[in-house]
């Protein structure tokens, strides 16, 4: 199926809203959520200013592979870069995941590591995060970084939010170190090619 939509609410703290729709992310300041094309959306700026490359800032190390042993998921993780016009290309393949490098990287002392992926695609069927809604609390997420280290996270919560009501706290960069995995869930509307909800799985360093 096409039309993956990960939509975020307006963030008073971050000063922007987050939406991941289809294959493109758009970075732009936004006082409120506005309707977006199915292949575009917005990501939040880092606290206190625009998004920065966490790796170049020396905060942790960029992820290159993510594993969820319980689901037998082993997916490549690609960094999401910001173009001058504010757009980012999310990996088109449902087998790959995208790491927002404007947020924290694995190993950062604080902040949220944001990793998003397709629940499914028309060409490939189920994506890497297709089974995420069934993951158990207490399950492990293992992330291998470009520095060669594997960092372990423990799943602590799983929430489904209506796509226009994802709380801004999901993307906080002033939070204790954590990771969020984001994909789609709920009912699929063929008229708009979108899902009704966004699934957010929260994990803490183990």
Automatic annotation (TrEMBL):
<protein>
    <submittedName>
        <fullName>Class F sortase</fullName>
    </submittedName>
</protein>
<dbReference type="InterPro" id="IPR023365">
    <property type="entry name" value="Sortase_dom-sf"/>
</dbReference>
<dbReference type="Pfam" id="PF04203">
    <property type="entry name" value="Sortase"/>
</dbReference>
<dbReference type="InterPro" id="IPR005754">
    <property type="entry name" value="Sortase"/>
</dbReference>
<keyword id="KW-0472">Membrane</keyword>
<feature type="transmembrane region" description="Helical">
    <location>
        <begin position="6"/>
        <end position="26"/>
    </location>
</feature>
<keyword id="KW-0812">Transmembrane</keyword>
<keyword id="KW-1133">Transmembrane helix</keyword>
<keyword id="KW-0378">Hydrolase</keyword>
<dbReference type="InterPro" id="IPR042001">
    <property type="entry name" value="Sortase_F"/>
</dbReference>
């Amino acid at each position: 199926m096409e039309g993956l939509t990960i939509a975020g609410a307006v963030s008073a703290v971050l000063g922007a809203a987050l939406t991941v729709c289809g294959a493109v992310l758009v970075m732009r300041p936004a006082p409120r959520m506005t309707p977006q094309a199915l292949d575009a959306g917005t990501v939040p700026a880092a606290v206190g200013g625009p998004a920065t490359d966490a790796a170049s800032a020396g905060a942790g190390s960029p992820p290159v592979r993510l594993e969820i042993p319980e689901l037998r998921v082993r997916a490549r993780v690609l960094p999401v870069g910001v173009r001058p016009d504010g757009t980012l290309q999310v990996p088109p393949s449902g087998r790959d995941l995208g790491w927002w490098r404007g947020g924290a990287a694995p190993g950062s002392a604080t902040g949220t590591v944001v990793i998003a992926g397709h629940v499914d695609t028309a060409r490939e069927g189920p994506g890497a995060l297709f089974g995420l809604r069934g993951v158990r609390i207490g399950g492990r997420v293992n992330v291998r970084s470009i520095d060669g280290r594997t960092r372990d996270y423990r799943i602590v919560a799983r929430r489904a939010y209506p796509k226009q009501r994802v709380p801004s706290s999901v993307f906080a960069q002033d939070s204790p170190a954590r990771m969020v995995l984001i994909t789609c869930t709920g009912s699929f509307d063929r008229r708009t090619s979108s899902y009704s909800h966004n699934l957010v799985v929260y994990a803490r360093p183990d």
